[in-house]
Specification:
- The structure is a single chain.
- By secondary structure, this protein is an all-alpha fold.
- It has helices spanning 15-26, 34-78, 89-109, 112-135, 143-166, 173-179.
- Helix 2 (34-78) packs antiparallel against helix 3 and helix 5 crosses helix 6 (173-179).
């Protein structure tokens, strides 16, 4: 049965990342290298989660910001109640339209969507490795062999993540894992 201190909910984390962050505490008494592996996996998961947040912000901010600015540009030109001396509506609409075009161009050229998806896929892959580690139990006779396997999978996830971010390989981390 879970202890009450493991049930606390942090407002800054989603349920999955909070569940993963509990694993190092749950494997504290286990033989080495399980506690160190758990800590490593949680740190990797946190890094991917943080990166996913920023790429998500960049991607969705660009997409929705562009749509908002485009709509504002149309409204500025159409609404007569914005008229006044001097009439700068055309200039204001042009500024909004230009910013909208720049946002969507940056999002597309920077491939923010692919980078956000790569972070999310890597985060889930590392979460799954943490769950695999925990599911082995403290009396696992294969200890070091399992640790080596987990580290190999972490390497695959990191490599696929890097290739997806840089744009050299379009394979997502789960796709690379299936090929091996």
């Amino acid at each position: 049965m879970a202890s009450t201190n493991m049930r606390s909910r942090s407002r800054s984390k989603n349920d999955k990342s909070e569940a993963v962050s509990l694993i190092p505490h749950m494997v504290e008494g286990w033989p080495s290298p399980a506690p160190d592996l758990a800590t490593l996996l949680v740190k990797n998961c946190g890094e991917y989660s943080g990166n996913a947040f920023w790429w998500s912000f960049a991607y969705f901010g660009s997409v929705f910001g562009s749509a908002f600015l485009s709509a504002i540009a149309a409204l500025i030109l159409k609404l007569d109640l914005l008229k006044g001396p001097p009439d700068y509506r055309a200039d204001e609409a042009a500024i909004c339209a230009t910013l909208a075009a720049l946002l969507i161009t940056l999002s597309t050229a920077g491939d923010f969507r692919r980078k956000w998806q790569a972070c999310r896929a890597a985060e889930v892959g590392v979460q799954n490795l943490a769950y695999d580690l925990f599911s082995q139990g403290p009396k696992n006779p294969k200890g070091l062999a399992e640790a080596k396997t987990i580290l190999e999978h972490l390497t695959i996830i990191n490599t696929a993540y890097n290739q997806a971010i840089v744009g050299t390989g379009q394979a997502r981390p789960d796709d690379r894992k299936k090929r091996r």
